[in-house]
Amino acid sequence: MADRVVIIGTKRGFEDIPISMLRQMAGRAGRSYSGGIGNVDVFLLDDDFDDVKEGLVGSGKQLVNSFLGEISNVAFHLLPEVSRGNVYDVRTAMAWHKNSFHAFQGGLIDFEKVFDYLVELEVVEVRDGKFCSTKMGDISTSFYFRPEDVYAWKDNFEQVFDLGVENEDMAIVWALANVPREVNSRSSWKAKEGKIRCLDEINVLGFDIDDSKMGAALSWLRILGGFHCPDTASYSKVLKKDFGRVLSALKMLDVYRGWDMEDFFNRLQVQVSYSVGSELYPLVMLEGIGKVYAQSLYNMGVTSGEDLVECFSQIESECDPRLVKTVERLIHDIS
C-alpha cells in the first residue's frame, strides 16, 4: 500500500518554507519499504500555488550552496565549539572549517573578523591568549540562540529596567520583538491600523523599532493580552510555544547581569501562560480565576483580591454562578 503525506500550509509564521524542505517532507512518502510510490497532498493558498507546484514537480536538479560564508552564520556555528574549548584561536578555527561543506566548495573565511564580531557581541573574550566563551556565550549555546539575539535581549531589557517601565506591557513587547531574528516577521497590510497604534505607544515610551519587526511586536502584544490584529494568530502560537526557551535564557541573563528581576520574569511567565496584560496578573494569580473571569472582575473595578468584598454585591448579581462561588471561597480564604 502506498504511503501518503499531507502538508498543510507552506509557511512558518510569516515566512515561506523553502522548496528544498518541502521536497524533503514530500520525500517521506514512497520509501523503499512501501514499493517506492507515495502520494503527497499539499494544502496552500492560491497565491502560492504556481511557485510551489513548479518547485515540487520540476525535474531540474537543485543547486546547493553553503551559507557558512556569512559572518553571522559562522559566528553562530563556531560559538559552540569555542564554548566547548575545541576552538580557541584562528588556527583551530581554520581546522574546524576544513571539514565543512563550505570549505569543500572552496570557501574562505576571515576568522580574525569572526572573532572580533563575537567579542563585540560579548559572547567571547580573550583569556590567557585564547578565545573563550563568556556567560552570554554559554547562554547562546545552551539554548541554541544566535548570539546577536542574546546580545539584543540583554540591551533591550537593560534599557527597560533602567527606565523603570517593566510594568508597561508595550515596553516588554518591544524588548522581546526588537531582535535580529525577527527581521522578516512582517505584518500584513490588514494590520496597518494596529501597527500604527503599536508603534505610537512604543515611541511614547522612548523606544524605536524597525518596521520589519512589527509582525513580531503585534504577535507578542496579542500574547500579552493586548489588542488583536489580523494575521497574528499563527505567529503568536509559534512565539508562545518557544517562550519557555526564551524565558530560560532571560533568567540566566538576569543572574549574569545582576538585574535582580526574578519577580518580574516570574510575572511575565504567568502573563504569557494566561495571555493576559499586567493589569490582570494579580487576578489570575487567585486560585480558580482564569483569563475570562479575571477580565469580568476587572471590568467591575476589581484589581486585586482585596477588592472582592467591596464589589461582591455587583459580582453576585451580574456574574456566572460558578464565578460567584469562586469569589465567595476566595473571600472566605482572605478573611
Identify the overall geometry: globular
Per DSSP E runs of 2 or more residues, the count of β-strands stands at 6
Rg (CA only): 25 Å
Write the CATH fold name of the largest domain: Sec63 N-terminal domain-like fold
Outline the low-pLDDT stretches. Answer: none
Describe the structure.
With 335 residues, the chain is mainly alpha-helical. The protein folds into four domains: 3-57, no CATH class; 71-142, Arc Repressor Mutant, subunit A; 147-272, Sec63 N-terminal domain-like fold, CATH 1.10.3380; 282-334. It has 18 helices and six strands. Strands 1-4 form a two-stranded parallel sheet. The model has no long low-confidence stretch (mean pLDDT 88).
Write the layout of secondary structure elements.
Blueprint: E1 3-8, E2 11-12, E3 15-16, H1 19-26, E4 38-43, H2 49-57, H3 71-84, H4 90-98, H5 101-104, H6 111-120, E5 124-127, E6 130-133, H7 135-142, H8 147-163, H9 169-177, H10 192-204, H11 214-223, H12 233-241, H13 243-257, H14 262-274, H15 281-284, H16 291-299, H17 312-318, H18 321-334
